[in-house]
């Protein structure tokens, strides 16, 4: 039904970073570069910020196809949450975002990318594990954890 790996040690040995991304950069590009530099193989990311565009994707379970939609407008990232792993040796970011619009409605989903317009402040935890890879799962069409 599930698989898991313990985070050992739980409090010691976890590297934590506070990350502030430059204005106007791509969140995915900057965070990927950071994870490469710090050699993060398994971690967590959370944060907030302001963006001028974002592309979200929705996986249709019936077709196993992603449907992408871009919003070119100023939005507040009210919640960014995700995990960091590796797939085929490359940084693999799985991030979900909820973003608030000018009229206070929200849009969101799986984050394909977003452009910062203001600030983006992230907290990154590196669990210092190298055993969290990804494998493609035929049934769901997802790249699931492979411990
Ligand atoms: Fe997702």
Short overview:
This protein has a single domain, classed as Hypothetical protein, similar to alpha- acetolactate decarboxylase, domain 2 (60s Ribosomal Protein L30, Chain: A). It has one helix and eight strands. A hairpin with a 4-residue loop joins β7 and β8.
What's the topology here?
Layout: E1 15-21, H1 27-37, E2 43-60, E3 65-71, E4 75-87, E5 90-100, E6 106-126, E7 133-137, E8 142-146
Antiparallel strand pairs: 1-6, 2-3, 2-4, 2-6, 4-5, 5-6, 7-8
The structure holds fe (iii) ion.
Overall pLDDT: 93
- Look at the structure and give the CATH class: Alpha Beta
Superfamily at the CATH H level? Answer: Hypothetical protein, similar to alpha- acetolactate decarboxylase, domain 2
What is the H-and-E element order? Answer: EHEEEEEEE
What is the percentage of strand-forming residues? Answer: over 45%
- Helix share of residues? under 10%
Q: Could you name the ranges where pLDDT drops below 50 across 5 or more consecutive residues?
A: none
Ligand identities: fe (iii) ion
Straight-line N-to-C gap: 14 Å
**Total DSSP helices:** 1
Secondary structural class: mainly beta
